[in-house]
Amino acid sequence: KQEVTQIPAALSVPEGENLVLNCSFTDSAIYNLQWFRQDPGKGLTSLLLIQSSQREQTSGRLNASLDKSSGRSTLYIAASQPGDSATYLCAVSLTSLGSQGNLIFGKGTKLSVKP
Amino acid sequence: GAGVSQSPSNKVTEKGKDVELRCDPISGHTALYWYRQSLGQGLEFLIYFQGNSAPDKSGLPSDRFSAERTGGSVSTLTIQRTQQEDSAVYLCASSLAGPPGDTQYFGPGTRLTVL
């Protein structure tokens, strides 16, 4: 059974700081890995998607890396802003649909960026 | 265009009552997914539809939960004889095709509170 773990569960940083969120998964047989953002009362917004054959993806101040063999991914946020405050979820996509579905989520890291 | 919409946004019910949650996917998306997000837990897959059929219902937590999709569009998740442990945010997502790897777009969720 695939399990996804995110560390830390919560993080508070001052504005302008660079930060790293961590995600690990137990089964390396994944199709891709996604990082989502969830704001209170809102749905999930996809930030970055890394295919299993890729090592990293970048979008603006965000950079996500994937090391499939070690079962790890990181989300790097540069020059953090108060508007980055949200819960960040990591999810791995399995190659087939099963009782877990095919998108397995971690419990998230709640980020707070203080002005 | 319009994203995934869900209704109601909030639902408070008494233990033992039945509830219906509705999801309107993005127009043209053939795949539809239901997830549950309980306090302190990650997103838990419930059920997936490809068109009007659900290939795998084993993610539903008990036989009190059922879902249907009609016309390849709107889906309804029904919870019968609600229990307090059913309290959670129920999220719906849709994708153009289906798993694996197809990007899922999430709705804002329905927050269910069972008293």
Largest β-sheet summary of chain B: 7 strands, mixed
Largest interface: A-B, 30 and 30 residues
Give the class of chain A from helix and strand content and strand pairing: mainly beta
Q: Kindly state the percentage of residues in helix of chain A.
A: under 10%
Low-confidence stretches of chain A: none
| Beta content of chain A | over 45%
Tertiary shape of chain B:
globular
Could you tell me the strand content of chain B as a percent range?
Answer: over 45%
* Poorly predicted ranges of chain B: none
The largest sheet of chain A is:
6 strands, mixed
| Rg of chain A computed from alpha carbons, rounded to a whole number of angstroms | 14 Å
Multimerization status: heterodimer
Structural class of chain B: mainly beta
E-strand count of chain B: 11
Cα radius of gyration of chain B in angstroms: 13 Å
Query: What shape does the CA trace of chain A take?
Result: globular
Instruction: Please trace the helix and strand order of chain A, writing H or E for each element.
Output: EEEEEEEEEEE
Give a count of the beta strands of chain A, DSSP E runs of length 2 or more. 11
